[in-house]
């Protein structure tokens, strides 16, 4: 097989895997309720505990997701790394290089949490919900894209952040 043919096959394989992962992720968001802003706000608004209307079900979703991820990481990924095997669609595994908390991470996490708490939706569910053709979600996605652009612009003006992400 020619090198260009191998590269094309690898490219197609990576796109098919990405598509399947996206469909799996989106389906999980819909089935679990994480794509429903009212359900998310019902979980995030802990002031509802006192009157019995707080919805803890998303805690089960998040705990389940973490349990599945941790199991797969320790049973599949870590042994592959030890054996020197590459992931399915890349030549190496990619992990965060930065190991410390800094002002930018804390500020970014705070802004993300603030936005998620106010609107009840974050980027993944917003993209899934585009299919509903809801104008308010469309506006959210436009604002999100503007925020991503603004974040990149801010990072590009700060030399210590250029390599961080």
TrEMBL record:
It comes from the Bacteria. The keyword Transmembrane applies. The keyword Membrane applies. Keywords: Membrane, Transmembrane, Transmembrane helix. It holds the Pfam family DUF6691. InterPro entries: DUF6691. The chain crosses the membrane at residues 59-77, 105-127, 133-151. This is YeeE/YedE family protein.
